């Protein structure tokens, strides 16, 4: 007898509805964060749309990002923004707070953060400023 395929992280975390909530709560935090706000636009509408589409795909749901924008090419698309280790940590802290607020199961939060941490570290493109 065949073993059933494991459901994607996208489905296990709650699918579209949960991801929409996550994006809304997360970007409210980003907009208020002193390390992150300077590298984001004042209007988060397009940013939220892209993030929702990317995360849907990233966590095993529909490939919405590819359909709308082509391959994510994350590092290349982020090179114009100075992403320092401090900003990567701040981004991850906002995401962790968001996941905690959404009340997701611990094993799902851990799996999400593991994947996001790897990606955030890969996005770093600027060293910290020396004082």
TrEMBL record:
Species the sequence originates in: Caldalkalibacillus uzonensis
Gene3D superfamilies given in the database record = Globins
Q: Which residues form a coiled coil?
A: none
Sequence similarity: Belongs to the truncated hemoglobin family. Group II subfamily.
Among SUPFAM superfamilies, the record links this protein to: Globin-like (SSF46458)
Protein's UniProt name = Hemoglobin
Alphabetized, the UniProt keywords read: Heme, Iron, Metal-binding, Transport
PANTHER family, A to Z: TWO-ON-TWO HEMOGLOBIN-3
Q: Look up keyword Transmembrane helix and say if it applies.
A: no
CDD domains linked: TrHb2_Bs-trHb-like_O (cd14772)
């Amino acid at each position: 007898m065949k073993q059933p395929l494991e459901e994607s992280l996208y489905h296990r975390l709650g699918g579209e509805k949960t991801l929409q909530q996550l994006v809304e709560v997360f970007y409210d935090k980003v907009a208020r964060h002193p390390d992150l706000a300077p590298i984001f636009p004042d209007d988060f509408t397009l940013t939220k749309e892209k993030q929702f589409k990317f995360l849907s795909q990233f966590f095993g749901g529909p490939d919405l990002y590819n359909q709308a924008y082509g391959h994510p090419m994350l590092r290349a698309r982020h090179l114009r923004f100075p992403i320092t280790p401090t900003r990567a940590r701040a981004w991850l802290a906002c995401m962790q707070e968001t996941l905690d607020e959404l009340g997701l199961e611990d094993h799902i939060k851990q799996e999400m953060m593991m994947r996001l941490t790897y990606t955030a570290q890969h996005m770093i493109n600027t060293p910290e400023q020396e004082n």
